[in-house]
Amino acid sequence: MALKPLTQAEQDAILKAFGGGKSNFKQGASQRKAFDENRRDKAGEDPLSIILSVDDVKGQYDTSRTLMTTIGGKQREITGSDLEAFRRNIDTVRKAFKQGITANQVLDLSLKMDLDNAKAQIHTAIPVRYKGDVLHFMTNASKESEVRQHYVTVRFLDLGAIATTPIPLLTATKTVAQGYLAFDCDCGRHTFWYRFISTIGGFNAGRAETGFPKIRNPHLSGVACKHVLRVMFSLNQALAISKIKEMVKIVRASAKPLEELPENQLSAKEVKDAAKRQVEKAHHDRNQVRRSVDDPVKQRKAKKEAERFAKAAQTDAQKQRAERKRIIANGSPMEKLNLRRDLENRVKTLQREYGQTSNENLLDAMENLQNDINGLI
Ligand SMILES: [Zn+2]
After folding, report:
1. Are residues 311 and 278 in the same domain?
2. From the CB of residue 308, how many other CB atoms can be counted at a distance below 10 Å?
3. How close is the Cα of 154 to the center of ligand 1, in Å?
4. CA 206/CA 33 separation, integer angstroms
5. What is the pLDDT of residues 211-260, one digit of tens each?
6. 303 alpha carbon to ligand 1 midpoint, in Å?
7. How far is the CA of 163 from the centre of ligand 1 (A)?
8. Same domain, 324 and 277
9. 186 CA distance to ligand 1 middle (Å)
């Protein structure tokens, strides 16, 4: 079903998020950060702290604290078996994200509720400044929110390594955008539901959160708020790509460590214009946040990539077969000896595999290899 364009009033309300000029981009983010740190410090220092710490979860929990959880659905006091469940959930998250997380995975692993909210409420994600491997975004907040905008931080974990690899700039840029990353958002959902997950999962780009979300998210499900989801979706779009390209260029041209690189800010006009373009096109189908499996653009790209890979592999296999024929027919004695060793090793590998799988196709492959070996003797 086609979506309706945002009304002029809706567009104007969203554009207010990007007012206040350049200083708002940075100061706004710093103020939120300071507020969050202060709130967390106070919560942790309170003698009646309700934060469930790492030590608590490890098993040093004093039951007289009678903290509450919602694990199992209802709010009630935490028991010993809850701690076990918390530990299991932590292990699961750690294992799931051992390799890191990419923008597509954030979208694919998100909860439907967050995805639906991103689609319905968050229509802008504008990169406003960048430094080294960190790109800062601003998004609009939902109509119901107490604030107008949210600040989302993305750190591209492989940028340094990819930027210094001698590959074309655009290839490097896209590899960075689709590679492993860490993120942070100043909103309540990220702070109280997801920051703990991103901390233990190793993809946190802000203040680390060590307090277990025992009431809001004891099952540790989902990964990202609606603002982060909108930003992850935008990493595949021209505006963010152009900024990531700048970041790669800067790192390529400089010998300095990433953290010593200067910060670049977009102008207030550039940000406002970009936001305006996004709200005007918010109803376009290709601007709807979605999982990569539901994204026709990403699916087409993946299909092309797979076809290219299959073709390359096929050409490779054809080349190999031709080379093998040549050596069998009239290769040098050394070439023949090397090929024979290689083929014998392959037969051994296939024999082992056949022992484990009894896959009949392997027998044919082994017979073909054996015929080639016979031709070499
Ligand atoms: Zn958020």
Report:
1. no
2. 10
3. 12
4. 9
5. 999 999 999 999 999 999 999 999 999 999 999 999 999 999 998 999 99
6. 32
7. 29
8. no
9. 6
Distance 194 CA to ligand 1 centre (A): 9
Q: Do 313 and 232 belong together in one domain?
A: no
Residue 227 Cα, ligand 1 centroid: separation in angstroms? 4
pTM here is: 0.80
Mark which of 291, 312, 329 sits at the end of a domain: 291
pLDDT for 110 beyond 60? yes
- The maximal CA–CA distance of the chain, rounded, in angstroms, is 85
User: Are β-strands 134-140 and 76-77 bridged in parallel, bridged antiparallel, or unpaired?
Assistant: unpaired
Angle 227-231-233 from CA coordinates, rounded to 5°: 115
Give residue 29 CA to ligand 1 midpoint distance, Å: 13
Instruction: Say which residue the tokens 């653009």 belong to.
Output: 297
Q: How high is the mean pLDDT of the chain? A: 92
Query: Does the residue 286 lie in any domain?
Result: yes
Q: Residue 376: which region, alpha, beta or left (left: phi > 0; alpha: psi -120 to 50)? A: alpha
Q: In the numeric block, which tokens belong to residue 192? A: 């109280």
How much distance in Å is there from the Cα of 365 to the middle of ligand 1? 54
Centre of ligand 1 to C-alpha 116, Å, is 14
Which of 261, 291, 321 is the last residue in one of the domains? 291
Distance 195 CA to ligand 1 centre (A): 10
Work out how many domains the chain is built from and give that number. 2
Distance (Å) from CA 94 to ligand 1 centroid: 22
CA 112–ligand 1 middle distance (angstroms): 15
Q: Would you state the structure tokens that stand for residue 17, as one six-digit string?
A: 């998020």
Q: Does the pLDDT value for residue 143 go beyond 80?
A: yes
Domain-embedded: residue 83:
no
Backbone angles phi, psi at 234, to 5 degrees: -75, -15
229 and 128 within one domain: yes
Question: Is 215 within a domain?
Answer: yes
pLDDT in tens, 160-189: 999 999 999 999 999 999 999 999 999 999
Residue 60 lies in a domain: no
Instruction: Kindly give the distance from the C-alpha atom of residue 113 to the centroid of ligand 1, in angstroms, as a whole number.
Output: 13
Give me ligand 1 centre to Cα 91, in Å. Answer: 25
Same domain, 309 and 279: no
Q: 259 lies in which domain range?
A: 8-45+99-291
